[in-house]
Amino acid sequence: MQTELIPAKVFCASHAIEQSFIQTLYESGLIDITFIEEDPFVPAAQLEQLERIVRMYFEMDINVEGIETIIHLLHSMHSMQQEMNVLKNRLRLYEESGF
Amino acid sequence: MDFVDYYKILGVNKQASVEDIKKAYRKLARKLHPDLNPNDKEAHKKFQEVNEANEVLSDPEKRKKYDQYGKDWQHADQFEQARQSRQQQPFSGSGSYGGNYGEEDFSDFFSSMFGGSGSRSQTKFKGQDYNAELQLSLRDAYTTHPQTLTVNGKNVRITIPAGVENGQVIKLKGYGAPGRNGGPAGDLFITFVIANDTKFKRMGNDLYSTEEIDLYTALLGGEKIIDTLSGKIKMEVKPEVQNGTKIRLKGKGYPVYKKEGEFGDLYVTWQVKLPTNLTEKQKEIFRELSAS
Asked: How far apart are CA B167 and CA A92, in angstroms?
């Protein structure tokens, strides 16, 4: 399967951010980058995550360590929501059975 | 349409500096931003107010107009003059990155005073996300099938993978409202509501059902045709089976979501149905059996 790649410099230009910021995120493990002839590219599938990080950093003034923590907690929250959904469905079964 | 006190929303006084406003906005954004509060409509609504307040108070020109005319916003003539002068001197970008803000994310008060959303002309905005609910029956969700939805007057053709769960949400990227200033379109979130139209109970990928067998089959063994979601099958009933005995039929349950060819199991519980309206002769036979 082919992965669509966006040149990091194009992303940075359209969001008015420094390319070093993308490098920092890559080094902290928050995003993946693919290098083609030393030029960094961002996989299109990561754009949403990257835009969210950009908003947290520039709009909410949250540092990279804070963003890492938040993303981890959001993942946990998402997993818990899914688990809650499964449990709700199971509870509904028992309620419908009259237990 | 009521006057909106932007200073109160941001929790700053009228003498607040640009830096104070930025600080107050960021503090509230960290608490209320939709990125940090997914699926929280209340937080989203409050954030829109905070965003609007910041939009006005962080821009010196807008803030000046707001301070001058804010409480008297109904004096349309003055505002019209203000609007005309604004059109000749467009606002400069505030450097904010925006989120999912569309025209409808600004109050009537804001639109009346500044015209439209009056937003940062250079900033790209992602379109608004849409939410929709899709009702399916358990039998429908058993197979992968295409379905066409109408969302905001637009037909959206989607393929629903077999095994989708009740309450599960899927995201269709780019099917929300169009973006502004070249920004990407919003997303469409579809929540599945699955009604059970079958005799089966579903727990994850497993199905549960109860089948009746008569006393004689329970005692002597035999065959029983039972229902599954993929059709009827013949099952052997072992002799002397107890009431409530549970049998597992591997791979006869519900399809596993997005794993083609994988299925859960079907658990069948035997319910022994005792005979009624016995004849005298039958009763006599049972008495003999009971005494032996």
From this structure: 12
Give me the amino acid identity at B89: Q
Whole-angstrom distance, CA of residue B98 vs CA of residue B180:
11
Closest partner residue to B97 (CB to CB) among A55, A70, A85 is A55
Distance (Å) from the alpha carbon of B124 to chain A's nearest alpha carbon: 9
Q: What gap in Å lies between CA B109 and CA B115, rounded to an integer?
A: 9
Which residue in chain B has the smallest CA separation from A16?
A: B95
Contact B134, B189 (CB under 8 A): no
Q: What is the pLDDT of residues B264-289, one digit of tens each?
A: 999 999 999 999 999 999 999 999 98
- Cβ contacts of residue B287 below 8 Å, gap of 6+? none
What's the average model confidence in pLDDT over B184-190? 83
The C-alpha atoms of residue B221 and residue B270 are separated, in whole angstroms, by 12
Is residue B235 a contact partner of residue B244, using CB atoms and an 8 Å limit? Answer: no
Q: Sign of torsion, CA B72 B76 B82 B83?
A: positive
For the stretch B153-176, pLDDT in tens is 778 888 899 999 998 988 888 888
Question: Order of strands, edge to edge, in the sheet holding B246-249?
Answer: B201-203, B206-214, B266-273, B246-249
As a whole number, the mean pLDDT across chain B is: 82
Residue-wise over B243-256: b if at least 16 C-beta within 10 A, else e? eeeebebeebbbbb
Q: Read off the pTM.
A: 0.56
